[in-house]
Amino acid sequence: MNQDYFKNIDKIKFEGKDSDNPLAYKYYDASKIVMGKTLKDHFKFAMAYWHSMNDNGADPFGRLTNLYPWNKETDFMQQAKNRADAAFEFLQKMGFDYFCFHDIDLIQEGASLLETEKRVGQIAEYIKGKQKETGMKVLWGTANCFSNPVYMNGAITNPDFRVASRAAAQIKIAFDTSMELGAENYVFWGGREGYLSLLNTDMKRELDHLATFFNKMVEYGQKQGFNGNFFIEPKPAEPTKHQYDFDAATVVGFLNQNGLQDHFKLNIEVNHATLASHTFEHELQVSANAGMLGSIDANRGDNQNGWDTDQFSINLYETIEAMLVFLKSGGLQGGGINFDAKVRRNSTDLEDLFIAHIQGADTFARGLISAEYILTKTPYAKMLKERYESYDSGQGNSFENAKLSIEDLYKIGINQSEISHTSGKQELYESILANSF
Ligand code: XUL
Ligand code: CO
Questions:
Q1: What is the number of alpha carbons within 13 Å of residue 391 lying toward its C-beta?
Q2: From the CA of 395, how far away is ligand 1's center (Å)?
């Protein structure tokens, strides 16, 4: 049954910055070329199934405020089909080509894992049919190994092997389903992989289990002919007090230490970066430094709140700084921009979903266009290059190429008298940024 859930909303068009139509793109012109590539190809915008199709406004203090029409159906299979219909209608109207999902976003979890496997398999068939009709693709799939109470002590890092093996089985099902739907990537977000108290935790053993499991997933993916990327999505805490995939640097270290560096990349989420006391651009840069900048979960936090508010992106300054890193490091490896964001509990109109995603897409488009402007039309790149020019030739260059010993450095350094100050020009860099849009 193909209902028209958003019948009052037409396909969202690009109308330009002077438009006052909230249901039109002001900056996201999909075919616009920036740095030699269309905005559509740079971004690969994706809808997050769990927020946009499943969220109902419930929070830890209050019941749901907004049961979407496709979720009102009580028969779980019909509900899942209605939800898929709504998802595909939404994607087509937004002009997005991709979605991301957890296994149990697609359909209500069964009483046993076996029952869940059956249900997920059935709805995947239905979704595959809709993909054939519309050309919609999966940016990444994942397993929800954090909602079911069985994971209260962790999933793969659970002290009890019975739970760890259940998590492994659930991940295999989610991975197989993702492959079935042609997913370009597969994500691991370890919301319950970590500890609440170190007193009752053998951290080394748990981390070794995680590494062993990831290595087995690499083997399994190869055996199945998976051509995509595995991504780890760092987050320091929430729901677990301390999560093992704390931030990008921690994850890069873990991957390198366990021989996983050639098979994994990172999925960086804005609000996870800020929870780790970093900026979004810092986390992108750390990933890019390691050659592991895979994908982005786009949202923003709230300056007054210390938790994951998952709000849609509107922070232009933050996005421009991020897009500078994005362009300088050659974009994303295999991934895209997934709006891991939800409308507020009191945003209860269906059009709010559209307005939120439009603003998110416009913010990224505007950020990228401004970053291109900064890199090509302002002194920015030259200023940055000149800041390091003492390493471009002479002794600085010898040091950079590891040709100077500590004794050599001593001889050079001991004679550096009266080093004049060189301004860092931070305010000038900031004014370039502030005048770029
Ligand atoms: C949680 C989060 C997840 C992952 C996928 O903070 O970001 O939704 O993106 O499990
Ligand atoms: Co996320």
A1: 11
A2: 48
| Per-residue model confidence as pLDDT tens digits over 19-56 | 999 999 999 999 999 999 999 999 999 999 999 999 99
Res 2 pLDDT > 80: no
> Contact, 329 vs 292, CB < 8 A?
no
Residue 249's pLDDT band, with cuts at 50, 70 and 90, is very high
Between CA 205 and CA 113 the distance in angstroms is: 26
Pocket test residue of 268, 297, 300, 337 for ligand 1, highest count of atoms within 8 A of CB: 297
* Neighbouring residues of the ion ligand 2, judged by CB less than 5 Å: 269, 297, 340
Assessment of whether the complete model's pTM goes beyond 0.85: yes
- Dump pLDDT digits (tens) for 219-246: 999 999 999 999 999 999 999 999 999 9
For residue range 173-218, list pLDDT tens digits in order. 999 999 999 999 999 999 999 999 999 999 999 999 999 999 999 9
Omega before 239 cis (within 30°)? yes
- What is the enclosing helix (H) or strand (E) of 48? strand 45-48
DSSP string covering 176-233 = HHHHHTT-SEEEE--TTSEES-GGG--HHHHHHHHHHHHHHHHHHHHHHT--SEEEE-
Q: Catalytic residue positions?
A: 102, 105
Q: Which ligand is nearest to the CA of 237?
A: 1
Ligand nearest to the CA of 191: 1
How confident is the model over 102-143, as pLDDT tens digits? 999 999 999 999 999 999 999 999 999 999 999 999 999 999
The angle subtended at Cα 216 by Cα 163 and Cα 335, nearest 5°, is 100
The single residue listed with the structure tokens 């890193």 is: 325
Strand partners, 194: 243
3-state secondary structure of 133: helix
Between the CA of 303 and the centroid of ligand 2 the distance, in Å, is 19
Whose alpha carbon is nearest atom 4 of ligand 1? 189
Structure token digits, residue 67 = 């049961």
Asked whether the beta carbons of 143 and 233 are under 8 A apart, the reply is: no
Tokens for 319, please give them: 């996005």
**Domains assigned to the chain:** 13-377 (3.20.20.150), 380-434 (no CATH)
Q: For residue 269, give the ligand 1 atom closest to its CA.
A: 7
